[in-house]
Amino acid sequence: MPTVNEIREHFLSNAPWVDREKTVDTVKAGEPSKPVGTVAVGWMATVYDLRRAAELGCDLFVTHEPTFWEHGAPEERNRSARGGLEKTRLIEESGIAVLRCHDTWDLWPGIGIRDSWARGLGLGELVLESPDRWHAMYAIEETTLRAFAGRVLSKVQAIGADSVQVMGEASMKVSRPSVGVGCGGPGIDMIEAGSDCLICCFDGASYWSQRERFVECGAGVITVEHGTSEHWGLEALAGYVRQTWPELTVHYLDLYPRPWTVGCPDSSDSRRG
Question: Pairing relation of β-strands 97-100 and 165-167?
């Protein structure tokens, strides 16, 4: 059986784009030399996911986002604060080790966060990607922003999202949507490259500094939650762990809380089509 640290080393050794000295992909809890037989993989090591992992007898939880609500390693600030205390006790009592797999998996070729997001949305033809591979533009048959937003919604409803937010003229024509790596884009670079619709997430694209600017630059904007944009990537990570270490029992968990929205009837606002 591999150890926690051997699993971490596998990802780092296959991700030359990651700076080992600065990466957040570290062991957040537990003993790095611990042998692993059963693994849980999830977008966040929420208390709900960790409880389920403990029930399943997991030795390791591989998480993409922070466990203690702090991006930088080693996530110390909130461990003894409200919320963190319960999670810390759960981890210690269950003996689960927690490993973050973020910087490595974001850009993992073909099945990482960005590529899995595009595939899940049905964006087939890659037109171009940014030099750092964080952003990519795709070709679709021309349609209206409203129709394309409906298509995006139909895809993400299957993974627990109940809505998408749209900015721009509903009747505008779009044929070159772009996506990024989770909350890392897309941005102005994709508009300058010809993208007419940017699919963003709320965590990474604030209204005043980015999304409103995108609209002024002539692009439509579709916004989803951070977890929605990375959901398929984490399913792919679970599959990768299962394939790479067939001797392990692997569970994919996605019990993180989904936001839900309260809507209102369409108004006569012409921007809504």
Answer: unpaired
- Is the residue at 264 inside a domain? no
Q: Could you read off the pLDDT of 154-194 as tens digits, one per residue?
A: 999 999 999 999 999 999 999 999 999 999 999 999 999 99
> Is 182 in contact with 204 (CB distance < 8 Å)?
yes
CA distances, 125 to each of 145, 168, 178 (Å): 18, 24, 11
Phi-psi group of 31: left, alpha or beta (phi > 0 → left; psi -120 to 50 → alpha; rest → beta): beta
Q: How far is CA 198 from the centre of its chain?
A: 16
Residues 149 and 216 both lie in one domain: yes
Half-sphere exposure of 36 (CA within 13 A, CB side): 30
User: In the chain, how many domains are there?
Assistant: 2
Please report whether residue 269 resides in a domain.
no
Alpha-carbon span 142 to 140, nearest angstrom? 6
Q: Taking Cα atoms as reference points, which of 118, 184, 180 lies closest to residue 152?
A: 118
251 domain-assigned = no
CB 155 within 8 A of CB 120: yes
- Give the residue numbers spanning the domain of 27: 4-106
Domain termination residue (choose one: 54, 76, 106): 106
Who contacts 159 (Cβ-Cβ below 8 Å, separation ≥6)?
120, 228, 231, 232, 254
Per-residue model confidence as pLDDT tens digits over 47-57: 999 999 999 99
In a domain, 270, yes or no: no
Specify the pTM. 0.96
Q: Specify whether 138 is located in the same domain as 86.
A: no
Write out the DSSP string of 54-85.
Answer: HHTT-SEEEESS-SSS-SSTT--TTTTSTTHH
